Amino acid sequence: MCSIEEIDKLRDLVIQARDKAYAPYSNFRVGAVLLTENGHYITGCNVENASYGAGICAERTALVKAVSEGHKKFKAIAVVTDKEEVCSPCGICRQFIREFGPKLPVYMFTATGKYKLMTLEELLPLSFGPEDLQ
Ligand code: THU
């Protein structure tokens, strides 16, 4: 689990990431932040497209950025929208996160900074992963 300082940083960065969202079609802005095991924070936002299906979620943006920069071990992920209710990662993102963090803590923030914490395993039980291909 994260320290209070780490949670505060996740909260600040995830809100900044959400504010960079490109969501002109849904107007539903989402931010995500990954905390790597060695202390790096990697942000992502949703990036939509005029060809709607080509858009990408905030969580996957953050993960693709992280992995492409050499990070594959994570301590936590945070997500936020503009809403006061927490929003949990979509099914595709749960599967995408699962690849690199089957038990990763997921901090789901509200727009005013409260959070609900669940593990990826709780959000995606009986999941399919790399070990299943052995
Ligand atoms: N979205 C995310 O970024 N993450 C999720 O987990 C759920 C949905 C984005 C995709 C789309 O740009 C917008 O929210 C509305 O679905």
Would you mind describing this structure in some detail?
The protein has one domain (4-123): Cytidine Deaminase, domain 2. Helix content is 30%, strand content 21%. It is built from 4 helices and 5 strands; from the N terminus they run H-E-E-H-E-H-E-E-H. It has helices spanning 4-18, 58-68, 91-100, 120-123, and strands at residues 31-36, 41-45, 74-80, 105-109, 115-119. It has a 5-stranded mixed beta sheet with strand order 2-1-3-4-5. Strand 4 and strand 5 (115-119) form a beta hairpin. The chain is globular, with a radius of gyration of 14 Å. 31% of the residues are buried. The model has no long low-confidence stretch (mean pLDDT 98). Bound molecules: tetrahydrodeoxyuridine. Tetrahydrodeoxyuridine binds next to helix 2.
Features of the shown structure:
single chain, 134 residues, alpha+beta, Cytidine Deaminase, domain 2, 5-stranded mixed sheet, 5 strands, binds tetrahydrodeoxyuridine
List the helices and strands and how they pair.
Elements: H1 4-18, E1 31-36, E2 41-45, H2 58-68, E3 74-80, H3 91-100, E4 105-109, E5 115-119, H4 120-123
Parallel strand pairs: 3-4
Antiparallel strand pairs: 1-2, 1-3, 4-5
Bound molecules: tetrahydrodeoxyuridine.
Tetrahydrodeoxyuridine binds next to helix 2.
Binding site for Zn(2+): 57, 90, 93
Cofactor: Zn(2+)
Binding site for substrate: 46-52
Low confidence ranges: none
Share of helix among residues?
A: 25-40%
Tell me the span between the first and last alpha carbons: 30 Å
Average pLDDT value?
98
What series of H and E elements makes up the topology?
Answer: HEEHEHEEH
Order of strands side by side in the largest beta sheet? 2-1-3-4-5
- Chemical compounds bound to the protein: tetrahydrodeoxyuridine
Spell out the CATH superfamily. Cytidine Deaminase, domain 2
**Could you say how many structural domains there are in total?**
1
